[in-house]
């Protein structure tokens, strides 16, 4: 149940990102299954590739006091866009999109926690 809830939150966050920010969008004619697939790919990339990128960028991340993590998040968003029907308007679009996606995901996580739907507690 937790996996499906997380997948639904990520899919909704990606969908809302495409509605709120014009630098990230899905191909015309994309369906809900394309959004769910993009969320699934994002979960896999976040679980497998993002930790490696963070480890490799640790020295520069320490020098920038963690701000380089935003660049890693943008790279992850561009990678997801390369593998799915999600489109990103260049690195700047990925950078801003990653920040907006983080805020949307945080808000949705807070809402799920406030409603008591999160069973991780």
Question: In words, what does this structure look like?
Answer:
The chain is mainly alpha-helical and 121 residues long. Helix content is 74%, strand content 5%. It has six helices and two strands; from the N terminus they run αβααααβα. The chain has helices at residues 2-20, 32-48, 50-56, 58-63, 68-83, 90-114, and strands spanning 24-26, 86-88. A two-stranded antiparallel sheet has the order 1-2. The longest helix has 25 residues, at 90-114. The model has no long low-confidence stretch (mean pLDDT 94).
Characteristic terms for this protein:
single chain, 121 residues, mainly alpha, two-stranded antiparallel ribbon, 2 strands, 74% helix, 5% strand, globular
Please mark out the parts with pLDDT under 50 across 5 or more consecutive residues, or reply none.
none
**First and last CA, distance:** 14 Å
Order of helices and strands: HEHHHHEH
Beta-strand level of the residues, as a percent range? under 5%
Rounded radius of gyration (Å): 15 Å
Could you give the order of strands across the largest sheet? Answer: 1-2
**Overall average residue pLDDT:** 94
Strand elements, count = 2
Q: Any idea what the shape is?
A: globular
Helix content: over 70%
Q: Profile the largest sheet.
A: 2 strands, antiparallel
Helix count equals 6
How does the helix and strand content classify structurally?
Answer: mainly alpha
